[in-house]
Write a structure and sequence with these properties.
- There is one protein chain.
- The protein is mostly helical.
- It has a domain at 106-323: MetI-like fold.
- The protein has helices at 10-44, 50-55, 61-70, 77-89, 103-138, 143-157, 160-174, 190-224, 227-234, 239-267, 271-277, 282-291, 295-323.
- It starts with 9 loop residues before the first helix and ends in a 7-residue tail after the last helix.
Length: 330
């Protein structure tokens, strides 16, 4: 059944969305499989021996052999991969070789930190990127446009580690307004939590803001030259309404999908930023796992990060499908 406007009726639209999601999921399953193979293969290329790292350099060879047998390190690589994948499909990501804690528990303890940092970074990016992109498009060719493009270029070009160090020197060392590093959970002290998460959110958010600004500007320039915008102006609609109601609403469709993808990238962890500010998220956990030769932790962090990124890409596709009437057959 079709509605009077020519758009699919609700049952037909729901079926179309379900088919679209099913096709996207069918693509994601082999993607996750190849990601798992790549993760398992790359960690095998790390130098050194995990069993010796656990037992110590001066350990008895019998102890080292027992460790290899316990963690299946003496089995062929294909067998090790099969054992690992079988456990992962059952929700078992293994046990940390260093502290004997299940990797799933470690990830569960770090995930809220990474999510909070990602949310804070996205808020910074949205507050800076979208208004700057709109102003740049509306004031095209003016000093405002040049300034907005300069800000976007700076956000894309400045290295995160350098910006983080400069913020620490300014706000922590010289002004003493914010702590230089560390993390306090919000349920312990919300005020201190916000002060510890602010600078790393700015560092990560400025980079995403540059991308958001450029995409918003390009989408706004395209919509501002559309026929329906010219028609609205010809009807003497106030310029503010033309920009905010007609142009921005349609320009935000690709920006929404970009935001979902960037959020997925932030959920994957920010290694340098978390190391600089001593934020105990996925990035720092990954670095510690590599240094400690903790195979299970490295595999778990990378696999969960990749899965989160893939899921956010799926969400971006769904949002774009829902927001874009042409894909829905409207």
């Amino acid at each position: 059944m079709w509605g009077r406007s020519g758009a699919p009726s609700p049952p037909r639209a729901s079926l179309t969305l379900a088919l679209y999601v099913a096709r996207r999921v069918a693509v994601l399953v082999p993607t996750l499989f190849f990601v798992s193979v790549l993760i398992f293969s790359l960690q095998k290329l790390l130098p050194g021996d995990a069993a010796i790292a656990i037992a110590g350099e001066e350990s008895d060879p019998a102890v080292v052999a027992a460790i290899r047998s316990k963690y299946h390190l003496d089995r062929p690589v294909v067998v090790q991969y099969g054992i690992w994948v079988g456990k992962v499909l059952r929700g078992d990501l293994g046990e940390s070789l260093r502290n004997k804690i299940p990797v799933s528990e470690l990830l569960a303890s770090k995930l809220p930190v990474t999510v909070e940092l990602a949310v804070g970074s996205m808020l910074v990016a949205l507050v800076i990127g979208i208004p700057a992109g709109v102003l740049s498009a509306v004031r095209r060719g003016t000093l405002v446009d040049v300034a907005a493009n300069a800000v976007a270029l700076s956000g894309l070009s400045v290295p995160h580690f350098w910006l983080g160090i400069m913020l620490i020197l300014l706000f922590a060392v010289r002004l003493g307004w914010l702590p230089a590093s560390g993390y306090v959970p919000p349920w312990e002290d919300l005020g201190r939590n916000l002060t510890t998460i602010l600078m790393p959110s700015i560092v990560l958010g400025t980079g995403v803001a540059g991308v958001m600004m450029r995409h918003t500007r390009g989408a706004m320039l395209q919509t501002l030259s559309a026929d329906y915008v010219r028609t609205a102006r010809a009807k003497s609609v106030p310029e503010r309404l033309v920009v905010m109601k007609h142009a921005l609403r349609n320009a935000l469709i690709p920006v929404i999908t970009l935001g979902a993808i960037e959020f997925g990238r932030l959920l994957s962890g920010a290694v340098l930023t978390e190391q600089i500010f001593a934020i105990p998220g996925f990035g720092k956990m990954l670095v510690d796992g590599v240094f400690n030769r903790d195979y299970a932790v490295v595999q778990g962090v990378v696999l969960v990060s990749a899965a989160l990124y893939v899921l956010m890409n799926l969400l971006a596709d769904i949002l774009y499908f829902v927001a874009n009437p042409r894909l829905r057959g409207a």
